[in-house]
Amino acid sequence: MTQRLIYNVNIPRFFVSHRLPLALAARDAGYDVHITTSDGDLEQIEVIKATGLPFHPLPLAQHGTNPLTELQTIRAMVTLYKTLQPDIIHHVSIKPVIYGGIAARIARVPAVVSAMSGLGRVFSDSTLKATMLQQVVRPLFKIALGHPNTAMIFQNPDDQKTFVQMGLIQSANTTLIRGSGVDMAVFKPTPEADGKPIVLFAGRLMWKKGIGDFVAAARQLHDQARFVVVGYAESSSPDAVPLTRIQTWADEGVIEWWGKRDDMPAVFAQSHIVCLPSSYGEGVPKVLIEAAASGRAIVTTDTAGCREITHDGENGILFPANDIEALIAALQRLINQPELRQQMGQHGREIAQEHFSLDDVTAQTLALYERLLTDLTQDVQIEPLS
Q: How far is CA 280 from the centre of its chain?
């Protein structure tokens, strides 16, 4: 009998960029795969539908906080789960993990996988608002992760340890799968281009991702290298950097603004150094895995997630978060030493191939599904959430 699997991811774009290959592999492995995300971003929804995977839109606001609206989201998830009657659900990102976890217990779904791509702003910020939000989400996490046949995937051991120490989940119900995987045949090393070195920032345009520090370094080093920004803004995020600000920096000549790009292998081929000065609660930044797979030296912060893929002095340089002088020193070192950055790029490719390939991540995740579904034959009782 074919087993039904649902992927519940916050927004369509994130599903397409980080989980679509996994979903297709699960379908190839024989699962009846269904997708549910928020109902915005029609362009990315069409990408999902074009694969032939059944898509079910949800009234889910990524950054919404209205209690009534959030309750409607949970109710919609319960209805969907009761209608589709999945054997297993894979929740990705904070709202699907919490809301979907609660909904799965109400709907008595047999097996649940949860995945956090880093701890995000809720656990990485030290603001009063973040502290208060933590007090709200902690008990909700405990309820959501209290399913008797569950597993939570963490991308780095720091996050895994944090959740266990906070008592949100038992260690036995956690597993470490580093990142969402990168196709090593698509992202591959190319010779460095001639000319002034290009330092690349790529990703979501968020202040916590370090774009401000990147621009500060660019002001100091613009005569030695070209500083390029590639990415997109999430207008609903309170941490978003306005595109008008990006354009102002570009007009001043501090950076080059290349906009949102869908040809990232070509972008990495033009770059010489990839820089992510993040203080965000990262899982393992996919852009850094792609950079390593592409044979490019990395400069990033010595923080959870970033140091999983970046081994200091081996395939890049780590520096303390929010330390602009250390960032400038690290960039200057690699700008001035092409042989060193090329050597680091070679090591990065080896690290990516050994630990972060899409094939490995997919195999580990499918094996986790198999284990949870096998446990169902061993008299695991799924009680409804009272």
A: 11
Would you say residue 380 has pLDDT above 50?
Answer: no
Residue 219 CB partners (closer than 8 Å, separation 6+):
254
Give the ranges where the chain is alpha helix by DSSP (H).
12-18, 20-28, 42-50, 67-84, 94-95, 101-106, 120-124, 128-144, 157-165, 211-221, 243-252, 264-270, 286-293, 306-309, 324-336, 338-355, 358-375
DSSP state of 228: E
- What is the C-alpha separation between 60 and 67, in angstroms, rounded? 12
Residue positions counted in the chain: 386
Give me the phi and psi of 111, to 5 degrees please: -145, 140
Strands across the sheet containing 111-116: 55-58, 32-38, 4-9, 88-92, 111-116, 150-154, 174-176
Q: Position 56: which residue type?
A: H
Q: What is the mean pLDDT of the chain?
A: 93
- What gap in Å lies between CA 128 and CA 126, rounded to an integer? 7
Model confidence over 214-268: pLDDT tens digits? Answer: 999 999 999 999 999 999 887 777 889 999 999 999 999 999 999 999 999 999 9
- The bridge status of strand 174-176 relative to strand 150-154 is parallel
Q: How many CA atoms lie within 13 A of 52 on its CB side?
A: 4
Sort strands 273-276 and 256-259 into parallel, antiparallel or unpaired. unpaired
pLDDT at position 235: 73
Cβ neighbours around 234 below 10 Å, total: 16
Task: Identify the bridge partners of residue 35 per DSSP, sorted by sequence position.
Answer: 7, 55
From residue 219, alpha-carbon distances to 41, 110, 215, 249 in Å are: 35, 55, 6, 10
Share of the chain above pLDDT 70, in %: 94
